[in-house]
Amino acid sequence: MEISSKENTQFFSNNTTLPVDRSSFKSESSASKEKQSCCGGIKIFLGALSFVYFAKALSGSYLKSTITQIERRFDIPSSLVGVIDGSFEIGNLLIIILVSYFGAKLHRPRIIGAGCLIMSAGTFLIAMPQFFMGRYQYERFPSTINSTVSISPCLQDKSQTPLSALEKSQAKINAGCEKEAGSSMWIYVLLGNLLRGIGETPIQPLGITYIDDYAIEENAALYIGCVQTVAIIGPIFGFLLGSLCAKLYVDIGFVDLDTVTITHKDVQWVGAWWLGYLIAGVISVLASIPFWFLPKHLPKPESRKDSSISSEQSKFITEDNKDQHKSYQQQVKIAEMAKGKSPEFLSWSLNFLPSLKKLFGNPVYILYLCASIIQFNSLIGMVTYKPKYIEQQYGQTSSKANFIIGLINIPAVAFGIFSGGLIMKKFRINVFGAAKLSLGSSFFGYLLLLSLFAMGCENSDVAGLTVSYHGSKKMADYEQALFSECNSGCACSKNDWDPICGENGVTYVSACLAGCQASNGSGKNTVFFNCSCVGTMESPSQSSSAVVGPCQKGNECPKMFLYFLVISVITSYTLSVGGTPGYILLLRCIKPHLKSFALGIYTLAIRVLAGIPAPVYFGVAIDTTCLKWGSKRCGGRGACRLYNFSALRYVYLGLTLVLGTVSIFFSVAVLWVLRKRSSPQDETLSANGERGTCGTKSRKDNFVHSDHLIQTTYWPEKETRL
């Protein structure tokens, strides 16, 4: 790909004099050795790149699995968590253009290796706040903590509480307020994720183009499919690692676990989120090692030595003979000037704007770019908050949600991506067929997603939030009232969230708001008695008991969750089938020397217009469905404790489906342009032999002095063997 100006001039001049069968002078043994060297080198690079994709996918998916953990640990809303998640894309944005354009001219394997080291440094930085913050403190009434002081949940008179206990409680709150200045250390998580984005930047544009440059063309789609399939194994281990760490208490190794009074099923539980980042950082360091020993170039296969552009690319890349010759002369002139008077990268920078103009002048590239941006908005938003959706909608623990995604959904995605590459190769699908396959997978995938609207759970019965204290009236948002006659004599705070489950099956925000007068036991085994608000509908004034923790969901919810899993797996597979065909469409609709630059611009657009905003506005939309916010120790709104399940379902699935539908319209436009630029060509050529819409005759005139290139260009099955 990187040929100097003198070599380029010699190449074109030799094409006019050398015979067509110059390759016959090579011996069969030398050709065989060269083929073995090429195949061996590309396979080594393929293995190294696959492991890097595994490493970056593991750390990225682990971040997705810790969204709720980070939200609770730093007591921040979903919208702010979305900003943290989007900082990865901001890191890409900072250097993606430089890396994708100039990186193709430099030592691509070593640039990828350096990126892995930067990525590992960012991963380690994300885990650092755990070692500098204070211990995690959750909301619990003093009677549920192992203590010798017995305090009534319903503080009808503050004199009920011993002075020493009140003083200690106030002193503990004040100490918490002093330490809360350190809770802004979520900024280090944001900066670490931003550094991860910087390190990950060169992997995709430089790695994929390296394979496409030196692999046999009929194997390119399969190789890219293999890389993406191995990359999907990373999220499997990432979510499984997140599942394991979510079961471990956040301060494991720092506190006595016997003193912890909550379980991993509690809404306030925070797992050891930081532990997985240390593991992911070590893996990223190991992944960087092979790239420091790989060569800058590999020998090209015999089928690609005599052609700078493929036959199918010639259909969709139009360029006039005079313009191409003029452009080539300008490139030679600029290269010679740069070689004598300035650094070599000056010639690259002078070609930047013309290259950008050529890309944006390609309608197939632009339309596919728009379709991808909108589709990735829906997919990124959906994947980011999927663990949270499963936890809140179906009452599953964070550990179980991550385990299900890692063990069921991600393998379906991997199988779908690999199936797409296999279908491309087995049926020899061309660019037009790849566009149809990509469109079909998106259409049926979002059609299946529509059925998930019917697979949700009803809101839990929470007194004062979703039902009245008598349990008979459904509450609207504007009618929320945590205080009632049954708890009017208690000195309760509406900001607390320490749920208990009454024997009537209704959840109460706290034991105080339930009107409980006494308690027995400690920690997880606490039982509250004489709760004036806990009663049956027939005798609401009857005092009853309650236990620690919210009530379990109804019997229908587990069944709905099972249906959700089945449809979710099928949807994941269907949407993923179009992944590899989409990549091939992107690579084949542009000129070879612009492939790296085009992938860089593509990645940049996805990062800026999908990766950064999608988690933020999805998070803002999800925050609007919150019914009960937590409160920070020193005042201010914390993380959401309870969501409106119906509103959450319509917002989460509705946003995903609307964005996906819009992307399908752009995919239809891509298909229409490809059909328009390919079909009329054959009709025009057969009618009068003149140049058709896709410029076939222009290419024939351009290479009239090179029989070799003419033969290669008109090999019809060259690009269809995918």
From TrEMBL:
Membrane association type: Multi-pass membrane protein
Kazal-like domain boundaries: 480-535
Pfam family, one: OATP
Cellular localisation: Cell membrane
InterPro entries (UniProt xref): Kazal_dom (IPR002350), Kazal_dom_sf (IPR036058), MFS_dom (IPR020846), MFS_trans_sf (IPR036259), OATP (IPR004156)
Gene Ontology cellular-component terms listed: basolateral plasma membrane
Record-level Gene Ontology MF annotations: bile acid transmembrane transporter activity; sodium-independent organic anion transmembrane transporter activity
Domain of life: Eukaryota
Catalytic activity: L-thyroxine sulfate(out) = L-thyroxine sulfate(in); L-thyroxine(out) = L-thyroxine(in); 3,3',5'-triiodo-L-thyronine(out) = 3,3',5'-triiodo-L-thyronine(in)
PROSITE patterns: KAZAL_2 (PS51465), MFS (PS50850)
Broad class of where this protein is predominantly found: membrane
Domain Major facilitator superfamily (MFS) profile per the UniProt entry, residue ranges: 45-678
Transmembrane annotation, as ranges: 40-59, 80-104, 110-132, 220-250, 270-294, 365-383, 403-423, 435-455, 560-587, 599-622, 651-674
Keyword list, A-Z: Cell membrane, Disulfide bond, Glycoprotein, Ion transport, Lipid transport, Membrane, Transmembrane, Transmembrane helix, Transport
Region described as Disordered: spans on this chain: 300-324
GO biological process, one term: monoatomic ion transport
Family: Belongs to the organo anion transporter (TC 2.A.60) family.
NCBIfam families xrefs: oat
The name this protein goes by in its record: Solute carrier organic anion transporter family member
Organism field: Brachypteracias leptosomus
